[in-house]
Amino acid sequence: MVGNILQWVKANLLIVISVALMLILLPTGWFFSNKWNASIQEKATEAYNSEKRKLTSASKVEYSLPAVLDGEEGLSDNRAPNTLVTNFYKEQMLQRKEQVAEVVDRGENFNRKGHTVPVSDLLPTPADASKLRQQGFKLGQLVAGTNESPSIYSKLLRSLNAGDAPDPEALKSSLDQFKKQQEDEFAATSSDGRVSDEQKEVLAKSLVKRRLDEYASRAESIAFYCPLSAIQTESQEAGFSHIPSTVPGYDSISEQAVFTWVWDYWVVSDVLKAVTKANTDSSGVVLSVPDAPVKHVEQIRVGEFSVQSSEFNEDDFDSRGGRGGRGGRGSSSDDPSGTPQFKSYTNRNANIPGALYDTRLVHMSAIVSSEDLPVFFDALGKTNYMTVVDVDIEQVNVWDKLNEGYFYGSDHVVRANLVIETVWLRSWTKDLMPKSIRTSLGIVTDEDLMEDDG
């Protein structure tokens, strides 16, 4: 049987091979055909979906308006293109850009308001070294004051109606004259031409009253006490900028020095103007010492300006001196010299290369009404970008101060030792900075770019 089958297969080998191939290829073809169809179908579906997404996307436009103010929500809409909607968003965007530009301008004007250079042809760079010495010496005379012309700080205090206690020598002379006059009147009415013990006691009380009346009268005539010595010093104090009380010599005049003298004046004037603002009531009337929140500015010291160390890449700066990223901590860093700097809780990135602003710290000691101290804090922020970053309160012996000639009225007073952080935008200060300072701060101005191009 098997032999017959094998003979038949050999005789019909072509037919057997053909049948075998048909039995193998049919299911194999069916399998691969199905897979190929599935692949074609998947690719066709993807192509269809892709074209559908493109058509859908082309039929809609994403409209958006970014938020400008803190807490404000942005506006967005995804819809088919519409001329009216497009014009609306375009006009709103232009308005918002104008509003932002206006806010920036207002912020800069608020910061630089009233801050000018007292001497012309000096900042940022005088014509030559001779001009620097000449105009710098003139500025030194204005800062320290001379016999012919008072200091610009004296003029500032006078404009703010600030002053000191009555002059002791002048008051003593006035009281001696009053005493002599009273003694003469008592002696003229006495039978023996002498002043009795009772009259001496009356005279002593009259002298005390007259002295207190002089103190009170002086307090009523000024807005706050602030002697010139509270601002100026005879010599450099460690950690503080020097506001000289005597005209500096030519050897101390440099571009950095004259710029610092001007900057110190801006800082001090802002703080004192804030005192006046605090001492002004709601109707615009400047109060006198007995009724004022700030009664006596005992001392103002402006901290030295030092550039904090920070690694930076010159490529990070644009042509206006700005920087894209944030640098290290500014006022909270240590000075390269090893002198620790005050660590402010504001953590402002200042006094470093690429920052948008610088800070100057002011150490101030003032006798104030304990109840109205917050009024002064508020006035600082309304005057310029100033923030109280530290305060220590001490008791004040008003009788000791009264013996010195300072009358504070009936308010409970304390001595407030303050550290005030003042902020200065480089958008305008850089135009007055000498190039050496700009270089250390990584500031690039249009003038620098023109020099580089040249």
List keywords for this structure.
13% strand, 4-stranded antiparallel beta sheet, 454 residues, alpha+beta, 8 strands, elongated, 13 helices, two-stranded antiparallel sheet
Furnish the topology, listing elements before pairings.
Blueprint: H1 2-11, H2 13-58, E1 61-65, E2 75-79, H3 83-112, H4 129-144, H5 152-159, E3 162-163, H6 168-189, H7 197-221, E4 224-225, H8 255-278, E5 294-302, E6 357-369, H9 373-383, E7 386-395, H10 398-403, E8 413-425, H11 426-429, H12 435-440, H13 446-453
Parallel strand pairs: 3-4
Antiparallel strand pairs: 1-2, 5-6, 6-8, 7-8
Describe the overall structure.
It is a single chain. By secondary structure, this protein is α+β, with helices and mostly antiparallel strands. It is built from 13 helices and eight strands. The protein has helices at 2-11, 13-58, 83-112, 129-144, 152-159, 168-189, 197-221, 255-278, 373-383, 398-403, 426-429, 435-440, 446-453, and strands at 61-65, 75-79, 162-163, 224-225, 294-302, 357-369, 386-395, 413-425.
